[in-house]
Design a protein that fits this description.
- There is one protein chain.
- The longest helix has 26 residues.
- With 222 residues, the chain is mainly alpha-helical.
- 66% of the residues lie in helices and 0% in strands.
- Helix 3 packs across helix 6 and helix 6 crosses helix 11.
Length: 222
């Protein structure tokens, strides 16, 4: 292995160490330890600082593993204001913090059941071959990330956003959005509303992809 190969290997190892170190740092116990929620927010901020620090240290900026990075690259541009920095980094930010959450109530068996029920409900109205597991998973992912919401995906979407881990992360998203507003350029009320909606969609994109990724239900492509 040459010089560049060794450097790439070290980066992969460093990235995996960083990912391992943040897993489980956000939890119900941390949330409940401080009624003001500040302990949880402080930990989330520190995880973000660690992530930003790693971005500057590594040659490769791709700190979200594939296939999630591929999905983000191909879907982010479908969100308005995607080229604003705050929106552009929101999916990776959401993914990183979701990876740090415990998601202890998340049931892989229930997710699989909901993926199958989505396909069963959608099959009569769509031409896709829902006998394929990959097709069923792609359809569910596209519905849950809400860039192309369809009625059949509502149950699995509600299941994921109803998880206690998701609700805790959404408070961090709200806090981050408020902090970002200080640095936004001058906007009309309509523009600000579009920005806020775009930021929420971009953040949710990262969180949802991480949930499917941790369950090994995220296809390599769509």
């Amino acid at each position: 292995m040459g010089l560049f190969g060794n450097a790439a290997k070290r980066e992969r190892e460093q990235l995996e160490q960083l990912r391992s170190a943040r897993r489980g740092r956000l939890s119900a116990e941390l949330w409940d330890s401080d009624p003001s929620e500040q302990a949880y927010l402080d930990e989330a901020i520190q995880i973000n600082l660690d992530w930003v620090g790693a971005l500057h240290e590594m040659r490769s900026p791709d700190l979200v593993p594939r296939p999630a990075a591929w999905w983000i690259e191909n879907l982010l541009t479908k969100i308005q204001y995607w080229d604003m920095n705050e929106v552009a980094v929101a999916p990776e930010n959401g993914y990183v913090l979701s990876e740090a959450e415990t998601w202890v109530e998340l049931d892989a068996t229930e997710v699989d059941r909901l993926i199958d029920s989505v396909a069963e409900a959608a099959a009569p109205r769509h031409s896709s071959d829902f006998s394929s597991l990959t097709v069923r998973q792609i359809f569910a992912v596209l519905g849950v990330i809400r860039l192309k919401p369809v009625p059949e995906t509502e149950p699995i979407y509600e299941y994921i956003v109803g998880q206690p881990s998701y609700r805790r992360l959404d408070c961090v998203r709200d806090h981050t959005e408020i902090l970002n507003s200080v640095f936004l350029p001058e906007m009309t009320d309509d523009q600000r509303e579009i920005y806020e909606h775009s930021f929420q969609k971009a953040w949710h994109l990262g969180v949802a992809l991480e949930v499917f990724d941790r369950l090994d239900r995220l296809p390599d492509h769509y």
